[in-house]
Write a structure and sequence with these properties.
The protein is of the alpha+beta class. The protein contains 16 helices and 19 strands. The strands form 5 sheets. Strands 6, 10, 11, 12, 13, 14, 15, 16 and 17 form a 9-stranded mixed beta sheet that branches. Helix 1 (35-44) packs across helix 14 (387-411), helix 3 (68-81) packs across helix 14 and helix 7 (151-164) packs across helix 8.
Length: 472
Amino acid sequence: MKTECTPKPLELHDLGKRQVIAKFNGGKISSDTGVLLLRELETRLPIIERLARCFVDYRHADYVEHDVVSLLKQRIYALALGYEDLNDHDALRVDPLLAVACNKRDPEGRHRRRAVDRGAALAGKSTLNRLELGDPEQAAQHRYKKIVADRTAIDDLMVDLFIESHELPPEQIILDIDATDDPIHGEQEGRFFHGYYKAYCYLPLYIFCGEQLLCARLRQANQDAAAGTVDELARIIPRLRQAWPEVEIILRGDAGFCRDEILRWCEDNGVDYVIGLAKNPCLIRAIETELDEAKRRHADSGKPERVFRDFSYRTRSSWSTSRRVIGKAEHLSRGRNPRFIVTSLSSDRIDGQTLYEQVYCARGDMENRIKEQQMDLFADRTSTHGMHSNQLRLYLSSFAYILLQSLRRIGLKGTVLDKAQCGSIRLKLLKIGALIRVTTRKVWIACSESYPYADLFTQVLEQLQRPPPQPC
């Protein structure tokens, strides 16, 4: 229990003749009232409850106060609210509003078994830490770390949630694949130096479809950026085809994924691709005429000019067959800027310029999604020692992203925030001050009268509580 004492006043600069005095004695006030929207979303789409089924809990049921569902809700909601550290939870565990979001029937923790825990309805950092550190090979016999995640089940759930988000089978989906760096600053398992990023890091692999996340795989950095891509595609594509037998699937990625193994797998499994191709002297020679034409146009217009060439190309030894390549011969104020992509889509179906400018270049938006996870939802907080526990942290960040993306897709549809990134959603909809009062029959939440987005909050709540459309 916290020591009862009179908070020391904080003296600020005067306002005219008035003194400005602050104290941390306002009572049960939460700065995270928007977590109630996440609770409503979870009621409609039980994302975290389904995630909890992907864990095996070896704890004795008679001694469990915090089940896996409430532990995961507490951790994932906190990430969405901006609390990246486990240490934050020693203060958050006394927040009755977060306890309400986690469906704790005793939101003030008045009736906890141990006197030392009373007043804190939620789990502390140590309990949450044991959730993350459960080792699949030792959990059943371990004294403390008795909760373990089933990685295969979690991977499958991410794909299932993507499929279920569609009311009707899509005619076409484009899967964006990319790798990024996750810098590490300790002696974590799998620590390697990466020459491109000039840092010790992990090299996580992401697969998105539009804004929706299908794969987040933590990998060591001592390997090619495309390593493991075929394994992930072989896992995801059959599940998509099982749900949507007629869907057209296109794989899109940068030149780091232009590997014959990946291209051949796509060709053998009916998956089209649009992949960046690293330039080399042979490719540049193939578009010399177009480069000269772009230079001439640039000299006349003074603006960047592009000329495209569509041709068949095969490497000397690394490719098993010839493939369609589109070359972009571009001339800028700083000089030539040749770029290339390789694709399985035929020229009869789509011309090279359209394919490059409207299809391939759109992959850049995926980097915004990765940025949301890394910067807004702390996917790079992989500071535990083991790879398996750091992978679990990446999963928790991923499901925080899935939760906020679902809020954006359902609750924010048609509002001014329907394209907002996770950080903006947190700032404008989740970080709301309110006074909390818990009585025998009600939880009273008095929100700030000066909150500028009250009408938007009400609109989002109404959309979340609206019955979901029935599948056709």
